[in-house]
Design goal:
The complex is a heterodimer.
Chain A lengths: L1 H20 L12 E6 L7 E3 L2 E3 L1 H12 L3 E6 L2 H9 L5 E2 L7 H4 L3 E2 L5 E2 L1 E6 L15 E4 L5 H6 L8 E4 L2 H9 L5 E5 H10 L5 E5 L7 H4 L2 E2 L3 E2 L4 H16 L2 H8 L11
Parallel strand pairs in A: 1-4, 1-5, 9-10, 9-11
Antiparallel strand pairs in A: 2-3, 6-14, 7-13, 8-11, 8-12
Chain B lengths: L1 H49 L2 H15 L3 H14 L6 H26 L3 H9 L4 H31 L11 H12 L2 H43 L10
Helix pairs in contact in B: 1-2, 1-4, 1-6, 1-7, 1-8, 2-4, 3-4, 4-6, 5-6, 6-8, 7-8
The chains are: A alpha/beta, B mainly alpha.
Chain lengths: 268, 241
Amino acid sequence: MRLRGIGVAFLLCLGGVVAAQAQNPAIKTVKGGVLTVAIDNDMPYCKEEGGKIIGVDGEIITAIASKLGLKVEPLVMEWAAEIQAVQSGRADTNICGMAFTAERAKTVNLSDGAYYQVSEFTQLKDSNIRSIEDLKGKTVGTIQGYFYIPELKKIPWVGEANLKLYNTIDAALQDLMAKRVDALLLGAPSSAWLATQHPEWNLRYEAIQPNEYMPDTVKKAYTVFSSRLDNPGLVQAMNAQIAAMRKDGTIEKIMAKYNMANPAFLMK
Amino acid sequence: MGAFLAAYGDSLALWLPPLVRAARVTLIVAVLSIGVGAITGLPLALLKLRGNRGLRRAASFYIEVTRGTPALAQLYITYFGLAGIGLTLDNVTAAVLALGLNAAAYMAEIYRAGIESVHAGQREAAMSLGMTPAQAFRFIVLPQAWRVVLPPGANLGIAVLKDTSLASAIATPELMSRAYDLVGQTWRPMHIYLLVAFMYLAMCLPLAQIVRRLERGVKRSDVLAARVPEAAGWRQRVPAA
């Protein structure tokens, strides 16, 4: 009799665990029980490794998925193709240092911010670009599709003529080393990652200062995750988890792992 | 569908100017690359046909290596690889050089096929009339080979124009690079890619038209070549006994 009671209790516990891990029926995903995540292997934000996603955004989305009873499955592609994967229903979300913009929010649901983005000029040690004024007569580079490109183009001495757009950070850095470009405007997480991974490159980083041409860039953009417009349940569920993780310090801990302990990144 | 088209109504005026400027760069890179390919391909073909054994092998080696490796890898090597040994080319020059030298390998084979389509007896006949080998090539072989070379050459031109999209990988401000950027800004990939596809089509269609005309011209000249002697009253003269 006692043994039967223990057996029933065990089954009830097991059932509880399974129920806790089961997918919430309000959340629609491309594959049942799986959160398919489009990524572009851009550290420190995200990288596919052994079927998992590492990096700041990778670990945050994995933690969110786990709380929602979903297994994460990465779908690696170019940055510009990620959003198409979400819109066309091949992926549930896309990540990797994606900033909120009103234009983007018209085409997909965007989650609440996970952390702030700060942009920096990455340059060679002997270069001294501290502000956008110092870009006069110089060439600046960044990555195709980055949210601050429209603002960069509005700077009269940059425009399209002195702005080089690369499809990967690697290509941009190679050009910086070859001195074909004077500085790169990249997210500070990328700079922080480069500083730890390649100290021998002797790069220096200068945070972009407030200026009249780039109000959106310097007013602290924040990192978001996407979902299809017809899937509001997913973004609501992600928002609840992001709020909880911001509050309990989970996001702060993940960021510290990737050399992003700077309080300027944290959203409270 | 209505909402899809409405986005064009709202934003086309914003999207078009940077894309048109980029299309200009695409055309410049394409025209210069085709020029490099057409000019470099001929000596390569001649080396393969008429060079000594060493030169023939060198030309064959170049053609096989170039055709057997991706144009994207050649672009990277030209832009980033050469910078490593101190030759720092700007992105447009590197794109023209890489795509042009890639096209040269294909052009060389097209020239070779054209030259070989002219019967060797014609060259021998020209030389028996006192022409030098260079004159026989210039006045007898080349004009006839040209008819065979032009249609596939123009087709290669269309392929090169579309291959310029690879130059986005080395930060060339061409059409595809600007399309990727606009997609990143607007997150309207289908709108942008359809627009860009239409722009490539608008650039390729005139070339395709030229190809069709050339092909018609070649066919007509072949028919004429078969009929003209009789139509002109040509009769083989029988030597007097």
